[in-house]
Amino acid sequence: MAEHLSQSELDYPFKLLEYFNGFRVSKVIFSACELGVFDLLLHSQKPLSAEEVSHELRTSKDGMKRLLDVLVGIEILEVELTEGTAHYSSTDVANLYLAKSSPKSLHDMIIYQSQTIYPLWNNMVDAVREGKNQNEKTFGLSSEDIFSAIYRSEEEMLKFMGLMNSTWIIDGHDIVTAFDLSCFKSIVDVGGCSGALARELAKAYPASTVTVLDLPKVVQTAQKHFIQSDDTIRFQEGDFFKEDLPAADLYVLARIIHDWKEEKCLTLLKKINAACHPGGGVLLVEALLFENHRGPIMAQIFSLNMLVQTEGMEHPPSQYTHMLTAAGFTDVQVCRTGKSYDAILALK
């Protein structure tokens, strides 16, 4: 495939040019979300002209027209001409995933990508040269304490928690049903943040108790901003590196292990093994690399993001298996979901 692609690219580098402009396409979507384009079009009773959109959102008409036309070009918006005037409307995909008011909205994920990840990636060259995150260069914060950087203000904490909420709203069900977890009657989501994945666990396994364990300020923010009226999940304050873990049948580590160096990961996994009830286990949720270094491209990109933002990386299944067995777990099972995140279940 790669060889065929290279041959065709010799005639004209279509694919390379598409890649070169990828960051511009991302920023078009990010900007439209930040400006409120998708919510305006969702709630409009009719297609709107660029002039109408710019008036409602208080932007220049010319700038908005250009932005809307690109969104049409990448098939996120629709356009129709009426007496020479273009009128724009949303596609079903935009209404479902890009409008802030949609129950499956990725708006919070997009805001985090635009305002936090995008600036970090501007220092990718330095990250590769130095082999460390770029929190200090990008935000003027210590590169050592990564979550002090991620949670550097209540506003930033809310952005990050919104990101995680969006992630598990679209990926959570596939993760919690990758294995039958009904035999685990007590489940602790370690570092469960907003509680979005815990809610998916509670929906799938209503006979199980599900507890979110996270830092006090995270738990307090979750209970203030993300609590739902029908919640059956519990929240417990605690630092899972420094304090004892509550006993449970199953511990969930969703996008936790990839944040840290192996030594720190092993310390946490051994601690979980010690706290785990006999016959219990741990569920890792990560974006799994292929063993042959050929993908998946999303996991490879995530791994680069771990370089610029944390001290960890993504791994192939063999590395997670190594860490889990070294921590005392057995019977390691891997499930690739075919989506952004995969699951690994290991038993004590």
TrEMBL record:
Molecular functions per Gene Ontology:
acetylserotonin O-methyltransferase activity; protein dimerization activity
| The UniProt record lists the keyword Nucleotide-binding | no
Does S-adenosyl-L-methionine show up as a keyword for this record? Answer: yes
Q: Which InterPro entries match?
A: COMT-like, COMT_C, COMT_dimerisation, SAM-dependent_MTases_sf, WH-like_DNA-bd_sf, WH_DNA-bd_sf
Looking up Gene3D superfamilies in the UniProt record yields:
Vaccinia Virus protein VP39, Winged helix-like DNA-binding domain superfamily/Winged helix DNA-binding domain
GO biological process assignments: melatonin biosynthetic process; methylation
Start and end residues of each O-methyltransferase dimerisation domain: 17-99
Kindly tell me the pathway this chain contributes to: Aromatic compound metabolism; melatonin biosynthesis; melatonin from serotonin: step 1/2
Q: Give the matching SUPFAM superfamilies.
A: S-adenosyl-L-methionine-dependent methyltransferases, Winged helix' DNA-binding domain
**Enzyme Commission number:** 2.1.1.4
**Active-site residues, Swiss-Prot/TrEMBL:** 258
Query: The O-methyltransferase C-terminal domain covers which part of the protein?
Result: 121-329
User: What keywords are assigned to this protein?
Assistant: Melatonin biosynthesis, Methyltransferase, S-adenosyl-L-methionine, Transferase
Pfam annotation, one family: Dimerisation
Give a short account of what the protein does.
Answer: Catalyzes the transfer of a methyl group onto N-acetylserotonin, producing melatonin (N-acetyl-5-methoxytryptamine).
Assembly and binders: Homodimer.
Spell out the protein name for this chain: Acetylserotonin O-methyltransferase
